[in-house]
Design a protein that fits this description.
The chain is of the alpha+beta class. It is built from eleven helices and 26 strands. The chain is globular and about 70 Å long.
């Protein structure tokens, strides 16, 4: 497998062998998100034996089954193994590269030719169907800090053109990864209901705001990355080391109240328009699993400036991007009642991002800001250059000039400029490359419920 070039921090090796199969039959399905070449991590909620509350345990997705990593560690299968199997959380697996060492061992256990778990007396407890599982946020201690970036030049240009057609991109955009500090406490797991926020808005042609329910609720299709290792306050993270601070990725829905955002964002940027809710997908797909799908950083126009030296490296230039397909779908309440499939609004690629995850991380720490294990950074809306590649409704309904808009049409006859109560937003992501197994990120879901105020 080494003949394939890859990022030096995450080499392609035998764990990416496309011929490798599992005794878990569903993991061999070419369309599954979770072959044994993936092995993403999540925290599943299980009801306590006495029915009083739930406890959270680490699971690994394998086809349409879940492997309980805590129960596996408590079994006798790895009694003779020298590695540390005494862990309680994904945070423990992040520390000192523990999961990087354990992942190949778990993968070997699931291979078709390995019978240790397949024939084990505890298999029925350790392995269980994924259907019906309820997931918590991936980190047992909670997500640390949360920073949201604005890394898609297509999204930034489109939104800028709506409000500043003569100057859509501000002068700093091509020089620094723009970001803002988000609200970690309102990050929720996939499946949680999203209450329509209340806030101040100003109607078109008016100058006095009113307080009430948001009327222009939107989603934003984003990719998030979890930090595995931080830096001391006052220290920086060189671009050549940034990838080693990353653990893995998930899908992020940065719910956005556009009418509230329009009124409040100057001069300090978004506040209540974003802080009410952010949804993330349950599974963390590790950087090791993504190794075959790395690609070059965004190819800048010849007239664009080169990033400053602290944001440049050969490895980032050649392998800083991720060729990941992402899509956003909408399902109205009426559609679900009629048994209709969700409608895809957008499909694009994460490789279109102007700034890489490593550049975002390095810039974040470039002033000596101390990042910590368990922090989450998000990419900003992922939009591409073509039709159907807009990562939010604000862009998807815009006709490309002036204020003219065209709504999204649903199969029920309903139309959407923005989200209605009862709408469900579904985000999906996956990676495909010839010569390797397809892997996916699963889904990120949320249903809008009426405002309360």
């Amino acid at each position: 497998m080494s003949k394939h070039p890859s990022h030096p921090s995450y080499p392609i090796d035998e764990t990416h062998d496309p011929k490798m199969e599992s005794w878990v039959a569903s993991a061999n399905d070419p369309s599954t998100d979770f072959p044994i070449q993936n092995l993403p991590l999540a925290m599943r909620l299980t009801e306590a034996d006495d029915g009083d509350g739930f406890w959270a345990g680490i699971v690994v997705a394998v086809g349409d089954e879940l492997l309980d990593l805590n129960l596996l560690a408590a079994s006798d299968i790895f009694d003779d193994d020298d590695d540390d199997w005494d862990f309680m959380s994904i945070e423990d697996l992040m520390a000192d590269g523990l999961w990087s060492r354990l992942r190949p061992k778990v993968q070997r256990l699931l291979r078709k030719d390995d019978k240790r778990l397949r024939d084990h007396r505890e298999r029925g407890r350790i392995m269980s169907p994924a259907e019906g599982a309820v997931f918590a946020l991936p980190l047992l201690t909670g997500i640390g800090d949360y920073t949201d970036f604005y890394a898609s030049i297509y999204h930034a240009t489109n939104v800028g053109s709506m409000f500043r057609p003569e100057n859509p991109l501000l002068p700093n955009y091509k020089w620094i990864p723009i970001g803002y500090h988000g609200r970690a406490s309102s990050i929720v797991a996939s499946g949680a209901e999203i209450r329509r926020p209340m806030g101040q808005t100003v109607a078109d042609g008016e100058s006095v705001p009113k307080y009430g329910a948001c009327k222009r609720l939107d989603y934003e299709l984003e990719v998030g990355a979890f930090i595995a290792r931080g830096n001391e306050q006052g220290e920086v993270i060189p671009i050549g080391e940034a990838e080693e601070h990353l653990f893995g990725v998930c899908l992020v829905n940065d719910w956005s109240a556009r009418d509230m955002q329009k009124w409040e964002y100057q001069p300090l940027g978004p506040f209540l328009a974003k802080s009410f809710a952010t949804t993330i997908s349950p599974f963390i797909v590790t950087m090791e699993a993504l190794a075959p799908f790395r690609c070059g950083a965004f190819a800048r126009d010849k007239d664009d400036p080169k990033p400053l030296a602290y944001l440049r490296s050969d490895a980032n230039e050649k392998f800083g991007g991720i060729d990941m397909q992402v899509e956003a779908l909408i399902s109205s309440k009426q559609m679900r009642e009629k048994g209709m499939e969700p409608v895809r609004v957008s499909k694009t690629s994460f490789k279109h991002m102007y700034w890489t995850l490593a550049q975002m991380l390095t810039h974040h720490a470039s002033n000596g800001c101390n990042l910590q294990a368990g922090d989450l950074i998000a990419s900003g809306t992922v939009s591409g250059p073509g039709a159907g590649e807009a990562g939010c409704l604000l862009e998807a309904t815009w006709k490309g000039a002036g204020k003219d808009r065209e709504p999204i049409k649903l199969p029920t006859g309903e139309t959407r400029f923005f989200l209605a109560d009862g709408d469900e937003v579904i985000l999906r992501g996956w990676c495909e490359r010839e010569g390797f197994r397809r892997i996916g990120l699963g889904e990120c879901r949320g249903v809008v419920t009426p405002a309360k105020g």
